[in-house]
Design a protein that fits this description.
heterodimer, A: 121 residues, mainly beta, 7-stranded mixed beta sheet, 4-stranded antiparallel beta sheet, B: 106 residues, 6-stranded mixed beta sheet, 3-stranded antiparallel beta sheet, 9 strands
């Protein structure tokens, strides 16, 4: 069974760092792009960036470049989203998802359950 | 940057047909997919490559894409179809989501 299982909810303070994870199983992790998506409370889906696990080719959305770091650990089929310095505006639910095909195209056919990040001042 | 525009809301009576549009420059030249998201849940892929349905998605969901507009059609809408719907495409190796449409089944 194809699954993406994300790490649990986080409550942090502004200025702290955070790394959340997305563990894949049931498919060839290195052959499908992973996207990270932000959903702020009551708002829509925003793409943050994508990564190809095989070679860690990473592309960031302009809005998020320099704000977060996306990485993978192929050995444990896990993708990560990292903040060096959290802001209260980072409060949101974060999803990871995988592409249906190997290229950076097409649909995301499996999504993680989401990780809620709450950042207080 | 490339943008996809959706109406914020669409209302439909049970059993009727709902259409949700997604507009973008020359969108017909790209593949569009659609996701359904219910409150508190993750998005679910319901249409990919403009017109294809993943396994398990009811036939009442269909898609089309031509010119500058892609359309998601829900035929015989049921109460369980009340949700947010997002279109998505790729533009120069970048993922683009529409702003989402709340489908209300009255």
């Amino acid at each position: 069974e194809v699954q993406l299982v994300q790490s649990g909810a986080e409550v942090k303070k502004a200025g702290e760092s955070l790394k959340i994870s997305c563990k894949a199983s049931g498919y060839s992790f290195t052959r499908h792009w992973i996207v990270w998506v932000r959903q702020m409370p009551g708002k829509g889906l925003e793409e943050m960036g994508i990564i190809y696990p095989d070679d860690s080719d990473t592309r960031y959305s302009p809005s998020f470049r320099g704000q977060v770091t996306i990485s993978v650990d192929k050995a444990i089929s896990t993708a990560y989203l990292h903040w060096r310095t959290l802001k209260t505006s980072d409060t949101a639910k974060y999803f990871c998802a995988k592409t249906m095909v190997s290229g950076p195209v097409g649909a995301f056919d499996m999504w993680g359950q989401g990780t809620v990040v709450t950042v207080s001042s | 940057s490339y943008e996809l525009t959706q109406p914020p809301s669409v209302s439909v009576s049970p059993g009727q047909t709902a259409s949700i549009t997604c507009s973008g420059d020359n969108l017909g030249d790209k593949y569009v997919c659609w996701y359904q998201q219910k409150p508190g849940q993750s998005p679910v892929l319901i249409i990919y490559e403009d017109i294809k349905r993943p396994s398990g998605i009811p036939e009442r969901f269909s898609g089309a894409n031509s010119g500058n507009t892609a359309t998601l059609t829900v035929g015989g809408t049921q109460a369980m179809d009340e949700a947010d719907y997002y279109c998505q495409a790729w533009d120069t190796n970048t993922v683009v989501f529409g702003g989402g449409t709340k489908l209300t089944v009255l």
